Predict the 3D structure of the following.
Amino acid sequence: MKYDIVIIGGGLGGLLCGYILSKHGLQVVVLEKNTVVGGCLQSFRRHGVLFDTGMHYVGSLEPGQVLYRFWKYFSLLGDVRLRKLDEQAFDVISYGGMRYPSAMGYSGFREQLGSFFPHERQALQQYTEDLYRLSVSSPISRLEEVEQILPLDAKYVKTSASEYIGHLTVDAVLQNVLAGNVPLYAGEKGRTPFYVHALLHHSYIQSAFRIVGGSQTIADSLVASIRRMGGEVWNDSEAVKFTGSLEGVTGVQLKDGRYVEGKRFISAIHPQVMVEMLNEDMVKRSYCRRMRHLENTVAGFTVYLAFKKGKVPYYNSNFFHYAVPDVWSCAEYTKDDWPRGYLYMHQAPADGGAYSESAQIISYMRYDEVRAWAGTMVERRGEIYRAFKRERAERLIEALNREFPGIKEQIEFYQVSTPLTYQDYTGTVEGAMYGIARDVNNSMQSVVSVRTYLPNLYMTGQNTNSHGMLGVTNGAMLTCGELIGINTIIKAINNA
Ligand SMILES: Cc1cc2nc3c(=O)[nH]c(=O)nc-3n(C[C@H](O)[C@H](O)[C@H](O)COP(=O)(O)OP(=O)(O)OC[C@H]3O[C@@H](n4cnc5c(N)ncnc54)[C@H](O)[C@@H]3O)c2cc1C
């Protein structure tokens, strides 16, 4: 059978494209290498306790807000249970011995931070206005039909988030507090564009929700919808080679020997992995070289905590802690001062109750720390690796215990993931948390277009537009827009 569309990768990007194109009546197949689909949407259970591996909270989901409109179109609203984070403190930035809560809604956000920084009310006004202006600056972001897709204003793309914040205020504490959610995009000082920070922060200030039952429910809902519309999603189907020529792709060879033919192809996997899958006749050297040289975001180390039953009250905020004066410097840790910072989040209780079953602590970890075990298999990396994981997990738990005294005693058991785990489970190069790093100093070179040089091969997912629920959703719309017209999709979303 020759499919209209073959999508490689069953993470959020691949599944959203599968949904849009199946809904449009095309014969779609999504190929996922793992037994469980979802990529960074995967959740897992140990001894019955649920943990999310990637996506933890989603913004802009109040009626009328942009992701609400998308989710209505993607039939996710009925299938995925949400729990709103604390409206007065969806994020808490723990910095310099103080805790700064972020409130939802622009006026609440300004008021609350303004009470800590009364002399900086003007800067906070400016900050929220700039975030809002940027976030609605393109017709696409307002889901309006367009004659052509225009890039974001250069000033947002060429100014780094740290530079913008540095100009906004001279108050070093406020600078760090405003940048305190930096682990959500693995931002780098002087490099990460302001738009990456702004789109994400705007979305969460609008409204922020946890997913009850785990982010896997998003993937499961999308798979069920795709199948209902006649599309196919195959798990255990690792793509290893594209066949074809410079005229175009003809098919995909799977690891187990199966071969899938198609008319058009979407790569929803890391672009550096994709270029290695092109056969000799299809390679354009300059393009492949450019892809290979793209830099990735830093990787992460996560401790998944299972709590003793009925002992730990549910904490309805995301806690960003810093043990250093510069929140942008956490990836430059030394072996002695790791972790310089971490993000601590509870899993929303399935029963809606007052106590938590589980939580995650996430900190940066450079791939170099685990490079020695690259190429080894999960669960077979040996005792030194196990000891390394144990030592780091305990350090992270100690750091958490300093901020939440006594929490250590309430842990029933814990699990750990390293950059190698992410690399193995999602195919992301060196376990990069959010794929390719955007860089203001190299703005054109660090952006991966949804079009490739091959006429029927497209890309989608966090490496193209931006990462996260909002970035990947917008990216899926842009990729499918190349195939069926962006206004067709925008119309369908607005009519949903
Ligand atoms: C720790 C962490 C926390 C996060 N928290 C949030 C959050 O709170 N909110 C938010 O909005 N975003 C969050 N994100 C980001 C968000 O989860 C991702 O940006 C998004 O899910 C990426 O989707 P994707 O489809 O681009 O890539 P992936 O999820 O990486 O999907 C790629 C898929 O392709 C498959 N694949 C790879 N190679 C092959 C192959 N050869 N053949 C077939 N299949 C293949 C993989 O198995 C995977 O399923 C987080 C990410 C991480 C890592």
Observations:
- Residues 8-14, 31-34, 39-41, 54-58, 238-239, 268-269, 273, 300, 362, 426-428, 433-434, 461-462, 467-469, 472 surround flavin-adenine dinucleotide (CB under 6 Å).
- The chain has 15 helices and 19 strands.
